[in-house]
Known about the structure:
Layout: E1 3-8, H1 19-28, E2 31-36, H2 41-53, E3 58-62, H3 76-84, E4 89-98, H4 106-123, E5 127-132, H5 135-153, E6 164-165, E7 170-171, E8 176-177, E9 182-183, E10 188-189, E11 194-195, E12 200-201, E13 206-207, E14 212-213, E15 218-219, E16 224-225, E17 229-231, E18 236-237, E19 242-243, E20 262-264, E21 269-270, E22 275-276, E23 281-282, E24 287-288, E25 293-294, E26 302-305, E27 310-314, E28 329-331, E29 338-342, E30 345-348
Parallel strand pairs: 1-2, 2-3, 3-4, 4-5, 6-9, 7-10, 8-11, 9-12, 10-13, 11-14, 12-15, 13-16, 14-17, 15-18, 17-20, 18-21, 19-22, 20-23, 21-24, 22-25, 24-26
Antiparallel strand pairs: 26-27, 28-29, 29-30
Helix pairs in contact: 2-3, 4-5
Amino acid sequence: MQTIDIGINLTHRQFNPDREEVIKKAVAAGVASMIITGTSERASEQAAAYAAKHAPILYSTAGVHPHDAKSCNAHTISKLCVLLGKPHVVAVGECGLDYDRDFSPRDVQRKWFGEQIELAAQLNMPLFLHERAAFRDFRDSSRALCTNTLKLTCKSPCMNKDYFAHETAVIDNNNVIGKGTKIWHFSHIMPDCVIGEDCNIGQNVVISPQVVLGRNVKIQNNVSVYTGVICEDDVFLGPSMVFTNVVNPRSHVNRKSEYAPTYVRKGASIGANATVVCGNEIGEYALIGAGAVITKPVKPYSLVVGNPAQQIGWVSEYGHRLNFDEKGEANCPETGQKYKLVNDQVTRIS
Length: 350
């Protein structure tokens, strides 16, 4: 019989002096494997990185503990999803409810508990749960959410009539594909992807495992979206644009454990034949010109062109150039929306 420790806080600072020695002693005592607990975005990233260096002895989880629920934001689930795509990250959590200390407001705890239950259902992964002094809400939330999300995971992609797939498209198992999405000729959706509602995936597109697409993402013909890419809502990917997922690829070196995540934030557009080097973030509503090569992060609302890409201006949410006055304000010529430029950052103010 093997002994597996399913919940170790090995990334905590108290282990800094003797972390390696703790692992050696555990193995010597007969512990076959250990699972490092992820309790926040940062802790989950640290746990995954450390576990990767000690595979197959160490594994990890990725999630947000109720104490840290107040730190969650619009990008939390997408970041967890990237971590959960790694082979040594084996469960969603630690998540749940803790009313004993209330380090996070209770309504915030419930919200992010629900988000993580849904994520586990979408990815068909186990949950690592936590409950303290919150049994009734924990029970009721779990029942309600599991009832709804299990309907999602138990549905075969081939039986889901809520989206359209051309007869030549190939859709592998364990995908979540939203209502109203269209998948066109000769495209391939590989396993364990999450694709939002009302997406349009053009001809000859490949979506690699664990890719996450938000709602209303438009992907034009001949695009490969590799593992590690997360596109938020309303993203546009132009014809034959290119993502990468390894900085220094070699045919004879397996670097699947080194895939670098790439984030394309809400409303961003990437032009035809552009290349996005992995590990970068494309900010909200940024506009990437055709043929540009992205080698560094792109600011929200920025307009970038060239090789390597350089910023040449700012654009509105409708894609028009913004001309800022002496007060640092500009209007979109199409919508009249107002924008403010402060410290080389643009925000929409109305």
